[in-house]
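WARN retry 2 of 3 for item q-0093 after timeout on previous attempt; input resubmitted unchanged.
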Amino acid sequence: MRELSSDLKRLSGMAFGRLKHCGPLLKRFHALASEIDRCAKTQSGLKNQIQNRKSLPREIASVPHISHGAKIENPNLIWRVYDWLLVPFMLWPIDFEGLAGDLLQRLQHGENLDQRFYLLLESIAEPPPETTQRAVAEFERDVESGRYDEMLKQREKYEEAERALMNDDDLMATWRTIKQNFDVTKFQNRRGVIRRRVSGERNFRENWNFDWTDERNQFQTIFDALCYRWNLYDMEHDRPILLKISVNPTRHGTIILIPRHWSLDPRRDLDGPSSTSSTALAAQKNPARNTPPAALKSCPMQRRSGPCGKEVARKA
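OK item q-0093 returned
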């Protein structure tokens, strides 16, 4: 049963501003629910799947109706997109926020979905099990706040490296020079954070081509070089943030990043089974293909060195 108020409440507890991004889309789906079913060629099994339009809040009563020219082959495929909007962002295989917005716009403009669009909808799998979603949603909240500390047994080892970074005169002098050449506030997010480009799966790199044609690309290239030289993840105002060991469940598997400045002793450095990250890993549909932090030493691994650290993945 899809119910708007409970689904919005669920989004409000998720990381990365999910209510702001996906809440309006859920409201549009609910406002158009009866019309999606009306336009469908077959409606078997859809009754009582979603609340009646008359019971919807007034705030979404103004959503445009679906044009009478629109035809929907299989409404279950439409609602599957809705269901994915409630899944933790880490598990999204494609941009469901963008897909949902485009889909709703097509329906409201009376456009029939073409064969390729239906091929896309039919290719989308059902969302992961609820247990997986809950575990990964909890882990996302830790990632959003940068809480990887629970993975480390020897917190003082990281703190020592962090203190050395804060006292690095060359780093701070270089950062001051960057600020003299750029208005860095233009590149900060609302928390005052500037991030480098991320390392990709198997060390593939998007937006990699050198581009010196505008200020933003010039700044980002200089900032990426700075982060590599001093092993940084980002800058929070004037505070450099040292790379930490991280474990991230993704839509295709789990990526473990060991920063290149870190001399890893898995048994002494990493805490595993009780951590949120391990819970998230264990909740994956095929746990045999995941590698919890505590098992790093005993499991056969292949390592791919990236610019910022070692990306670790289990052998296929």
